[in-house]
């Protein structure tokens, strides 16, 4: 069994909980001292960090969520001065509002260690050539794994998540053995292999680590079958300082949460009450090793189940099921996530478009296809075709520029969608 940090990963429940309590108390003290949001919220509730003298008292603390982060944009949630921050990354909120995440040098060290743990669980070693087909920009996914792969001693190719044909040719010529990507990129790669008539015999690929979006077991089996590889899944919401909070092991029976760095809880999303292990609910995460951007009881919006039973791999770290669903209506198409409200915000700014729309999502081959029906004001709808065409193109362009997704817009008469129930705003026809 390949375990990067056996002292932690094969520790005992008792030792892990002792470490968690020590780190939680240090985190609470730092957050209370340095972050106005935490200090004011705790004061209002009559809580001081010393009150939380056992893990059982964690549920006494208030939740945080995306809204908290957006309201404190850009640096309000930072617990260290900017001179101690060595890296800034960003993610987007439900309305497209940015959230800035900072890292100290220690945070980057923890990040590197975590990505090494994930890659080690995927049996990546010094002899591997690792091609990272993830975004290397502000969102930080590519860099997240880059450092860990270098620490392990693998040969790292900083690729990209665009142009699968070019990445395929690099993969063939550089003799890549491990791919790091979103599952949607692996599907594009399979299409590129067929289009370019590249034989699998000319590729050295043996494994891949997936990140960034949930995928079904059907998709996993298809990718493993078509590329003749093993797939390992990892998980981490983008607003929790990276790179990830959990990884599968070779047994593929859930994702081990890095409990020395994060405390997971499962709550009823309606009442906020803690649910017992084994029950499905919303995952809440408290970071206990982050200096710059500590998050206390952060509501991820992801629905899952925790499993504390021992894993055959030897790790004692709790496992979470792959994400089952969302508490909100976040949508992921071709690896890009967005909220329907973001489409409404874009339409509200375009003259002639009404804020009523319907999204129809389907899959053609390996691509998710998004059609959007948009109501237009009456005077424009009955105007000349050229104007309608311009409006359609303008909406498609605005959505692409703002959200990074390509859509096909169909303009419809005013009030033809207005009566739709909120549940009908999105129709997802993609096979599961
Ligand atoms: Zn395991």
TrEMBL record:
Catalytic reaction list: 2-phenylacetate + ATP + CoA = phenylacetyl-CoA + AMP + diphosphate
Q: Name one GO molecular function term.
A: phenylacetate-CoA ligase activity
Question: Which domain of life does the UniProt lineage start with?
Answer: Bacteria
Question: What does the subunit section of this Swiss-Prot or TrEMBL entry state?
Answer: Monomer.
What's this chain's function?
A: Catalyzes the activation of phenylacetic acid (PA) to phenylacetyl-CoA (PA-CoA).
Family per record: Belongs to the phenylacetyl-CoA ligase family.
State what protein this is by name.
Phenylacetate-coenzyme A ligase
This protein's species is Aerophobetes bacterium
């Amino acid at each position: 069994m390949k375990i990067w940090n056996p002292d932690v990963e094969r520790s005992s429940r008792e030792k892990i909980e002792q470490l968690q309590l020590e780190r939680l108390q240090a985190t609470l003290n730092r957050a209370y001292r340095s972050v106005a949001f935490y200090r004011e919220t705790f004061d209002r509730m009559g809580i001081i960090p010393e009150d939380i003298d056992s893990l059982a008292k964690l549920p006494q603390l208030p939740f945080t969520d995306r809204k908290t982060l957006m309201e404190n944009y850009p640096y309000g949630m930072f617990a260290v001065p900017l001179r101690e921050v060595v890296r800034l990354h960003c993610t987007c909120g439900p309305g497209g509002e940015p959230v800035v995440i900072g890292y100290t040098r220690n945070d980057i060290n923890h990040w590197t260690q975590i990505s090494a743990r994930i890659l080690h669980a995927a049996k990546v070693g010094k002899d591997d050539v690792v091609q990272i087909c993830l975004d290397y920009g502000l969102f930080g996914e590519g860099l997240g794994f880059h450092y860990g792969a270098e620490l392990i001693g693998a040969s790292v190719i900083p690729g990209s998540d665009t142009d699968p044909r070019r990445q395929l040719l690099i993969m063939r010529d550089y003799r890549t053995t491990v791919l790091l990507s979103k599952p949607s990129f692996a599907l594009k790669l399979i299409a590129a292999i067929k289009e370019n008539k590249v034989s699998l015999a000319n590729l050295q690929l043996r494994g891949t680590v997936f990140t960034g979006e949930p995928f079904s077991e059907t998709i996993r089996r298809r990718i493993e079958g078509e590329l003749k590889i093993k797939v390992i899944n990892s998980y981490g919401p983008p607003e929790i300082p990276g790179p990830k909070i959990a990884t599968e092991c070779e047994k593929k029976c859930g994702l081990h949460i890095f409990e020395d760095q994060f405390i997971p809880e499962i709550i009823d999303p309606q009442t906020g009450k803690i649910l017992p292990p084994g029950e499905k609910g919303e995952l809440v995460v408290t970071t206990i090793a982050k200096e710059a951007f500590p998050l206390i009881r952060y509501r991820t919006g992801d629905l899952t189940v925790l499993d504390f039973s021992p894993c055959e791999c030897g790790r004692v770290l709790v496992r979470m099921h792959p994400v089952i669903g969302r508490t909100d209506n976040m949508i992921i198409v071709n690896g890009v996530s967005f909220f329907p409200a973001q489409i409404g915000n874009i339409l509200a700014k375009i003259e002639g478009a009404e804020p009523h729309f319907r999204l129809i999502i389907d899959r053609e081959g390996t691509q998710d296809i998004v059609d959007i029906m948009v109501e237009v004001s009456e005077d424009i709808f009955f105007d000349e075709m050229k104007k309608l065409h311009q409006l359609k193109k303008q909406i498609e362009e605005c959505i692409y520029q703002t959200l990074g997704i390509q859509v096909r817009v169909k303009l419809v008469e005013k009030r033809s969608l207005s009566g739709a129930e909120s549940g009908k705003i999105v129709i997802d026809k993609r096979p599961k």
